[in-house]
Specification:
The complex is a heterotrimer of chains A (367), B (309) and C (267). Chain A is α+β, with helices and mostly antiparallel strands and 367 residues long. Chain A contains 9 helices and 21 strands. Chain A has 2 domains: 220 residues, P-loop containing nucleotide triphosphate hydrolases (Rossmann fold, 3-Layer(aba) Sandwich); 133 residues, Nucleic acid-binding proteins (OB fold (Dihydrolipoamide Acetyltransferase, E2P)). The longest helix of chain A has 18 residues. Chain B has 309 residues and is mostly helical. Classes of the chains: A alpha+beta (367), B mainly alpha (309), C mainly alpha (267). Chains B and C meet through helix 1, helix 3, helix 4, helix 5 and helix 9 of B and helix 1, helix 3, helix 4, helix 5 and helix 6 of C. The structure holds adenosine-5'-diphosphate and magnesium ion.
């Protein structure tokens, strides 16, 4: 039991404010699909349009190929896990889980049996008679999942379901959610502002900003080949250089900045005239005393080194006082440069991405 | 409204709207308008309604300036009795409000900031009986206490406060009986809003004021009273409104020469059988209440929701 | 004035206040046992139970008690659904329309009972509805529904609307959502509202007095004849009511303390 979801040119206006702007995306049956974006970018609004609590001002929502306009939330094959879980406080755990069956007229024995079965599925035993208030955060989380699964939805909608949990539990629940999704093969639409979550769990990710989708792709592509500056800065860390393209040939070019001219790779839609910037990931930066042929090089001064265990983060500044970051894998034979030392960083042209400066980039920087 | 439709669907939303509309239209708004309109027309037998005599005028209101006989200790004076009763009713209702406020303020402070939570539970338990006893019985209790040569007179005589027993419900003393009865009947409607407002005041604020060298009356005047404004407004509105509209307490405790405006209205309605005249006077009473409520809201800068608490 | 003396003064005042509140009720209860045909405690003419006996045999009291009960139950049946619906409606609105509706809803609480009574009487007479207890019911409902509305509205403020969405999302119908999710949350307020509505109706004098026509409720009957023809059987009735209140209050307090103790054990 699984269904595809398609948004066709969907927009949502609250009074004059456009919370979702012309979003089109197709989600395959059985897919774990995430919407990733900063808080307030319209993720919840998209989910509420899919579940039917609000109708889009423009465009269509299709579930399993069927247009959902005019169909209420209680008639759609969806189940939502709310940001605050929304467990019914006056019902016991098993009554919560069996609520969807109760309203469909199932008898008590069947409801109880199904609730027990789902409690097993989410690995939660011996709490059936308790009230939600008597559970821990992680237990409540599982009850919410079980309650949603009880109605055998074709589509699960999850609105930042892990945000209330502490770090350790969050890591654990990630794996568990992913496992449940694979086991049930229900289409999951997952919403989060946590890039780690989105990248780790999803088959595909849609990165959003200000109501618009910036990029839809598999996690590796999102990280390695972002389509614009917003995605590059929102997902993972990046070193940013402003400047201008001085020459362009096919997918390569020369980018002139205040600390030198670099050989770069051009991102999607970049041409000589476009407003763009250069992005280099910290893990693609190496330290050398002498320039390396075929590599771009920038002289820097090391300001601080923070040791994280399997890697170290080096904070530094170039001659234009720009803050830069480098990540070096832990290797006792090759320690990171000392604090205060002057040295060079180098990076390969295929790791130097010039990306379009979208409107969203400016917005993300203000944040 | 759209929100409501989405949550509860058409039938249930329709039911909620229907119930509310029935209430507000047929039990509140239309009756008020009808009373207002009727108050400008003479009260006529059914055959004359809509006839040439059925014209709009201020006559029903102007009777308040008419002279009527006022009986006082066996003498009869002509005077604008309705107007006097109207004014005295308002004055004594204000007095009731002020007396209640003065009596409740220290107690509310005591309940909110002095007594321990456990003591408060016991204290509130002692208030349960006075709170649940109906207005009728509260008034009736004072009818017995205020009897001529009754418990109150005797107590005061024994204390040496008065020399002769007082006929509390006789002559102009009647207003004192009414004042005592009204205060007793409605005082808890002042106490609880005041207490609620004071409990929401952070005790640290009082201590901060004292710490900064404020004298006890300065602390009250500058910190506690301003914070209690919503409670004062709410309590005052309730007590005034109940007092000015009371019928029971005056009926039981006043004298023929100290009547209450509600009694005048009742007599006009049912003794003189002039419903529209009663409507006019009822509208005057309503106006007084509206003035009082809006005045309180302005003066204490509180909203309707604070008053209705 | 030191803090200590001011606290002592306040304690004295508080005790005095309690005496002030309770003493008149005690006097009234005492008069129920005085063997004098007027309700009084002075002069004391000896102890008697006869007023209780007289009360028991008073046909009017029984008849008007029945009227009172019917009126009160009907008012509860009308005011509770109306007040609840009104609260849900006003809670779903925002801005100006909300304040306007709210003002209209609470206006009956801020209106003297006489005014409500007269307006009800005159309005329904236009439709040839004669005076009677049915009009008392309508008049009382107009302000008692407002009390219910306020209590339910206060409770609604602590309701998480997300729960309704969760129920709908799980496939519940609108009616099921109301019955299983919203109403259970509101029951305490609705119950308290019903109780308040009942007692407000029973003790209502002003509206009923103007609208009752030739019928009577207990409160109006006693209130109207208390001064002229009161017999101490009224005191007997009052004594019984006060006794019931005391028993009820103590019972409730015991229940509350037990519950608090049980909750403390759970933690
Ligand atoms: N019911 C609403 N009325 C008005 N504005 C809303 C409403 N719901 C959401 N918004 C606005 O739409 C924007 C997107 O909200 P939301 O979808 O909740 O963001 P996210 O879930 O990505 O944090 C926010 O700026 C929010 O203020
Ligand atoms: Mg959100």
């Amino acid at each position: 039991m699984t269904a595809s979801v398609e948004l066709r040119g969907v927009s949502m206006d609250f009074d004059k404010y456009r919370a979702v702007d012309n979003v089109s995306v197709k989600i395959e049956p059985g897919e774990f699909f995430s919407f990733l974006g900063p808080s307030g970018c319209g993720k919840t609004t998209i989910l509420r349009m899919v579940s039917g609590f609000i109708e889009p001002t423009q465009g269509q929502v299709l579930i399993g190929g069927q247009d959902m306009r005019g169909i209420g939330p209680n008639k759609r094959p969806t189940a939502m896990i709310f940001q605050n879980l929304a467990l019914f406080p006056l019902m016991t755990v098993w009554e919560n889980i069996a609520f969807g069956l109760e309203v469909r007229g199932a008898d008590k024995a069947a409801r109880r049996a199904k609730a027990e079965q789902l409690l097993d599925l989410v690995e939660l035993q011996g709490v059936a008679e308790r009230l939600p208030a008597q559970l821990s955060g992680g237990q409540r989380q599982r009850v919410a999942i079980a309650r949603a699964l009880a109605v055998e939805p074709k589509l699960m909608l999850l609105d930042e379901p892990l945000s209330a949990l502490d770090l350790k539990l969050r890591q654990h629940m990630r794996a568990e959610l992913r496992a449940i999704q694979k086991r049930t093969n229900v289409t999951f639409i997952y919403i989060t502002h946590d890039q780690g979550e989105a990248l780790a769990m999803s088959d595909r990710v849609a990165v959003m900003s200000r109501g618009q989708i910036q990029q839809v792709d598999v996690p590796q592509k999102i990280y390695n080949t972002p389509t614009n500056g917003f995605v590059a800065s929102f997902v993972g860390e990046n070193n940013k250089f402003s400047g201008t393209l001085t020459s362009v040939s096919k997918a390569e070019g020369k980018f002139k900045t205040d600390v030198g001219s670099f050989s770069v790779t051009l991102g999607e839609g970049v041409s000589r005239e476009s407003k763009c910037r250069l992005y280099v990931r910290p893990e693609h930066v190496e330290f050398t005393l002498k320039p390396k042929t075929g590599f771009n090089s920038v002289p820097i001064t090391v300001e601080d080194v923070s040791f994280e265990g399997n890697f170290a983060v080096v904070h530094m500044r170039d001659k234009a006082a720009r803050r830069l970051l480098a990540e070096v894998r832990n290797d006792p034979a090759r320690p990171p440069p000392a604090v205060g030392s002057a040295t060079n960083i180098v990076f390969a042209p295929d790791k130097a991405l010039v990306l379009l400066d979208s409107e969203a980039t400016a917005y993300a920087e203000k944040e | 409204m759209n929100e409501l439709l989405r949550r509860y669907g058409k039938p249930l939303t329709g039911l909620a709207v229907f119930l509310t509309a029935f209430w507000l239209l047929f039990l509140v708004i239309l009756p008020y308008f009808d009373m207002f309109a009727s108050s400008f027309r003479p009260y006529l037998p059914a055959v004359d309604v809509g006839g040439p005599k059925d014209v709009y005028s201020l006559n029903n209101y102007l009777t308040i300036f008419e002279n009527a006989d006022w009986h006082f200790f066996g003498f009869t004076f002509p005077m604008t009795i309705h107007l006097w009763v109207f004014i005295l009713t308002i004055l004594f209702s204000c007095l009731t409000t002020i007396v209640s406020l003065l009596m409740c303020y220290p107690l509310a402070y005591f309940m909110a900031k002095v007594i321990s939570p456990k003591g408060l539970a016991t204290f509130l338990l002692l208030l349960v009986v006075p709170l649940w006893v109906s207005e009728l019985l509260r008034a009736f209790a004072w009818f017995i206490v205020l009897a001529f040569k009754g418990p109150l007179s005797l107590t005061l005589q024994n204390l040496g406060v008065i020399a002769e027993p007082i006929r509390w419900t006789w002559g102009l003393w009647g207003y004192s009986g009414v004042l005592i009865g009204l205060t007793y009947a409605y005082i808890l409607f002042m106490l609880f809003p005041l207490y609620n407002a004071m409990t929401s005041l952070d005790t640290n604020q009082i201590e901060a004021a004292e710490d900064l060298g404020a004298k006890w009356w300065q602390t009250h005047w500058r910190v506690i009273i301003p914070h209690s404004k919503p409670g004062i407004a709410s309590g005052s509105v309730t007590v005034f409104m109940l007092a000015v509209g009371s019928i029971l307490v005056p009926t039981l405790l006043n004298s023929p020469s100290s009547s209450w405006f509600t009694e005048v209205i009742y007599n006009r309605m049912f003794d003189q059988n002039d419903w529209n005249g009663g409507a006019a006077y009822a509208f005057l009473l309503l106006l007084v209440c509206i003035f009082f409520v809006t005045g309180m809201m302005r003066y204490f800068r509180v909203g309707l929701a604070d008053i209705a608490k | 004035m030191t803090k200590k003396t001011s606290h002592i003064l306040l304690w004295v005042y508080a005790v005095g206040f309690i005496v002030y509140l309770l003493a008149p009720l005690a006097v009234m209860a005492g008069a129920a046992f005085n063997n004098d045909k007027f309700p009084s405690v002075m002069p004391w003419k000896g102890f008697t139970w006869r007023w209780f006996d007289e009360l028991y045999h008073d046909v009017y009291i029984w008849q008007y008690s029945q009227n009172t009960l019917w009126v009160a139950l009907t008012v509860v049946a009308l005011a509770v659904p109306i007040g609840t619906a009104g609260a849900i409606l006003v809670n779903s609105l925002k801005g100006r329309s909300r304040s306007l509706l709210y003002a209209a809803m609470i206006s009956p609480i801020l209106t003297p009972g006489a005014v409500i009574g007269i307006s009800t009487l005159i309005f329904w007479s236009k439709f040839s509805v004669p005076a009677g207890l049915h009009l008392s019911i309508l008049g009382q409902t107009s302000f008692i529904a407002a009390y219910v509305m306020l209590m339910v509205l206060a409770r609604l403020q602590s309701f998480d609307a997300g729960l309704e969405e969760a129920a709908l999302d799980l496939g519940a119908s609108h009616w099921q959502t109301l019955r299983r999710v919203l109403l259970p949350h509101l029951y305490p307020a609705i119950g308290a509202g019903a109780l308040l509505a009942f007692f407000q109706s029973v003790e209502n004098f002003n509206i009923t007095k103007f609208t009752r026509g030739a019928s009577n409720t207990l409160t109006v009957y006693i209130g109207s004849k208390a001064r002229s023809g009161a017999s101490p059987s009224i005191n007997a009735l009052a004594t019984i009511l006060i006794g019931v209140t005391i028993v009820g209050a103590i019972g409730y307090e015991v229940w509350r303390r037990r519950k608090a103790a049980r909750l403390a054990l759970l933690d």
